[in-house]
Amino acid sequence: MFVSHLELADFRNYESASLALAPGPNLIVGSNGQGKTNLVESVAYLATLGSHRVSSDQALIRQGQDAAIVRARLEHAGRQVLVELQLNRQGANRAQVNRAPAKPRDLPRHVHAVLFAPEDLALVRGEPSGRRRFLDQLLVQLTPRMAGVLADYDRVLKQRNTLLKSARAARVASSQLSTLDVWDERLVDLGSEIIEARGRLVSELRPFVGEAYAAIAGEVHEAELASELSILGAAPDEESEVSEQSVRTEIDQLEAASAFTAALAHNRRAELDRGLTLTGPHRDDLLLRLNGLPARGYASHGESWSFALALRLASAALLRAESPAGDPVLILDDVFAELDESRRQRLADAVGGYEQVLITAAVESDVPAALAAHTVRIRAGRVLEPEEAP
Question: Where does the RecF/RecN/SMC N-terminal domain lie (predicted)?
Fold first, then answer.
């Protein structure tokens, strides 16, 4: 799959933009702060319904405007699909597929993209929430209906937390909280499905991560993934040591449901005291190990960078292997400036076979010539015409 045409209206710093893109590598060049990342961010948003830089859609709408529009024409195997997303400052976002109304959460069925950016170093060194988001965004691209499951789980979790806070304020005894049992049942149903799906995804990603790490680093290191589950006693959000009994590669939904139910019962008193749900997929982590040691805390800067890049390349390889839409659009945002010459070339070799690669760079010479076949130049939120380019 590739994006043949991209249009923006009031997205980030673009009042309007219309850009033809080619299959293969596309290099987007411009000084820092001109809008290169904003362009590729729009494509990634269509695929994941999230930004890699901000948590709120409001920042994506140009200052002073009520809405932003991203429109992309996609091509695969001779077929075209036109997708459009309208981000609204007030009210729900709106979407269209081939000019027909659609739900925004339907867009990942049509748009597959994987973006790597410098912020992804936080996948290795940052908080568990970033790794959960990484898994969930990939999960939605592979299984779009999981977007609804994740949204429903978040809704139930908020309702349950509200009930816990109310009970704490009113000092209601746990034996009187029959309503809580109803929310527990729904939380377990949805949460165990998420836990199983994430575990299956981690298992499928593992071989691709090892291959990608070796390809980028040029060294043989054992890069491994596993799930660290709060229903089995892990507490990654509280900076606790990794407990091996809470680490799993996969877990089926029935086992997850049983463990989740037991964990809720065990934690009931503590949850009432804190007014917070202390176990579930919202408290899990993706454990990254390099040569048997947790990458967070042990990996060097170069190793962390290579691991983060390997996670994204593995995601692209998994989508390529499983998606009927062909290759995902692979996006490399300001990546080459961070790499030495040998790693630049190895990365170029690793991504050269993808149907479309979008690359941003402030310095054109940072990017191997093989990836600069189609170059677009950006200045102050404008796509420059060929005669304007230096």
Answer: 3-366
